[in-house]
């Protein structure tokens, strides 16, 4: 097993050795290179269990003519035998390993008599498949070795051995699309991302074992492991092995004792130089020419070309335009793709609901000086302009919590000091735009490289938390508004009632007088005039309260269906979208259908539950969208005159709150862009 360094099973098979530097033979590395050249390479395989993985590998080998179809059962049977680990006393030895984010397990079937690997054949229809379970065993969960592993570690398993039914080696290197728990295959319950399988004909067990150690050592090497994660084809992996061979140092035989284990160094040399050399970052230098430099601080964005400061006026902007221009057209025609459609629909729903929600909150905070329609229009116009001209158009513009807080404070400040809020807000906007232009002209974006991963994660958490908090807050408010009657008993249904009665008991005898007006006419009449002629029993709740009536009865406070139904829709939509998102790795339908369902998970679940809501017909609260295109408040127009409402010095003083807005926008926008730009998102355009 490997975590950065190799550990071997000590004699007797009871315990692991101390970690030591893996010493490989050069021959095994060249043999491994040949294996990668000739074997099956399957990258981003979509599978969720070991039987599925093995079946796909075997089918691939048969298709490409590397394996005879009559050997399919035997190979499958061999690969799915139950895996035992060295801690359990057994004549089946296994070296399982887990790496830095990686692991490798070289597995051998050892015969106790002569110590050479051997394979026993039982009836092929035996329960070999039942030996494999996706769930980790008890021993795995108890294993203290788990504490040594970093969080989110992924394993790579190496399975090597010899069998008597193959004439040529069976070789496969697999990278799974998503890391999957393969049950007892790994020593500890870590999801597997890579598999290397080598089954060969009898007589070369030592050679196979060394090839297994070679790929395991490569997978625990930082540079090769990065290449393995990002490789697009066989050539990338071969290039990775060649890069490793460039760095390897050979010790001549007879001048050192291979049995001596080399202790790991106290401080590891940085692999940055190797990474740069591999990506063509500097002129290649041969082994040992220059010492390794130390690693960089900061958030790991320092080597991005985008974040280098030019020191010239608008230098960064000009470089950005030059970098972006070649991709401008492709940004449009790349979107002619079914996956882009799911993203467009999802972003549309996310921004529309957000604009309406925040528009409502903004209306409450500013007495409708800015409301739903202003929020809508702002999101639409800025969103469109931003997508067309932004350096990183994958950032989606929308109202956020911090901006709402700012608007509320500003409105209250204007009210307390008798300022014209909209004019004040206009000047803050103009100053803020000017300050943002200064930031662009001075290349201030280079400061982003000092953001650490901690800052990014904190910021992501804050944004997520605001949305989650708002969702729950809305649901709790709803439960408050439409409480559930916990005392309700079906048997007492005859006791429940709610009626509208006039407040004045003297006139109550006259309430079904001669004139009965239709409800809409009552709305425009004065209660005093028609007090004697209202048919109180036919009024709605709102009408009853409007005409000074009172609701009498023990069921007036309850509309239980609404809260219950809203919670069903709330949790149902979430659960359904999560389930459909994971559908990609399920066993139903062909791959294309699964991928499509997974891509459209959120849209599908929203549509399903909107349909359920419409079918059931309970009057659940809906988003209130304005029906006509006009400013929310009748006191304002679309155009705001910049002068006349406030003293002259306010226009200059607006620069101070504008600075706060600029900082807020800068942080918000830049951190989001940095999160989008992370290496793991594998963006092709910077």
Overview of this structure, please?
With 686 residues, the chain is α/β, with parallel strands linked by helices. The chain has three domains: 1-81 and 133-264, 3-Layer(aba) Sandwich (Mannitol-specific EII, Chain A), CATH 3.40.930.10; 327-483 and 621-681, no CATH class; 562-616, no CATH class. Helix content is 45%, strand content 8%. The strands form four sheets. Strands 3-7-8-6 form a four-stranded mixed β-sheet, with helices on both faces. The chain starts with a strand and ends in a 10-residue tail after the last helix. The relative contact order is 0.08.
> How much helix is in the residues?
40-55%
Report how far apart the termini are. Answer: 38 Å
Q: How big a fraction of the residues is strand?
A: 5-15%
Question: Which spans of ≥5 residues are poorly predicted at pLDDT below 50?
Answer: 89-130, 281-299, 508-530
Q: Helix- and strand-based class?
A: alpha/beta
Radius of gyration: 35 Å
| Largest β-sheet summary | 4 strands, mixed
